[in-house]
């Protein structure tokens, strides 16, 4: 299974971007990718949790810094997870990573994630 993230770019403050993450090779038998999340890492900072969702969307969580501005969603038929980012701020500038975790409880602990996609850079600047 591979995770392929895309959608990053340069956007002005207040603008929007949508990130996508395709879980290639995931099937109905896959049982170690129950939670899909987005993390981000800004230069000189630690990787931080952004948002998490289970494939059935029964569990959705956001960090306080993005709540109300970002929306995470899934498309099971296409094995894709999206992160819609609105009202972007300069402090949202970072490399964004999608990741998969077998459990559902400790979604903000990046050390528990066993699949990671390559990052996609989001730059918010005027």
Overview of this structure, please?
The protein has 126 residues and is mostly beta strands. It has strands at residues 2-6, 9-11, 17-24, 35-41, 48-54, 60-62, 70-75, 80-85, 94-101, 115-116, 120-124. A hairpin with a 5-residue loop joins β5 and β6 (60-62).
Short description:
The protein has 126 residues and is an all-beta fold. 0% of the residues lie in helices and 48% in strands.
SSE layout:
Layout: E1 2-6, E2 9-11, E3 17-24, E4 35-41, E5 48-54, E6 60-62, E7 70-75, E8 80-85, E9 94-101, E10 115-116, E11 120-124
Parallel strand pairs: 2-11
Antiparallel strand pairs: 1-3, 3-8, 4-5, 4-9, 5-6, 7-8, 9-10, 9-11
- How widely separated are the two ends? 37 Å
- Mean pLDDT comes to 94
Strand percentage lies at: over 45%
Low-confidence stretches are: none
Instruction: Report the major sheet.
Output: 7 strands, mixed
Q: What is the string of SSEs from the N terminus onward?
A: EEEEEEEEEEE
Question: What is the alpha-carbon Rg in Å?
Answer: 14 Å
Count of DSSP-assigned helices: 0
Structural class: mainly beta
Indicate the percent of residues in helices: under 10%
Number of strands: 11
Which word captures the global form?
A: globular
């Amino acid at each position: 299974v591979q995770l392929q993230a895309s959608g990053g770019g340069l956007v002005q403050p207040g603008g929007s971007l949508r990130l996508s993450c395709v879980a290639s090779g995931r099937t109905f038998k896959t049982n170690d990718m129950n939670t899909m999340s987005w993390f981000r890492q800004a230069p000189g900072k630690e990787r931080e949790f952004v948002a998490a969702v289970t494939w059935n969307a029964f569990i959705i969580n956001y960090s306080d810094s993005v709540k109300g501005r970002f929306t995470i969603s899934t498309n099971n038929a296409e094995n894709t997870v999206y992160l819609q980012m609105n009202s972007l701020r300069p402090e949202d500038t970072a490399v964004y990573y999608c990741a998969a975790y077998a459990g559902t409880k400790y979604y903000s602990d990046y050390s528990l994630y066993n699949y990671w996609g390559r990052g996609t850079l989001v730059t918010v600047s005027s």
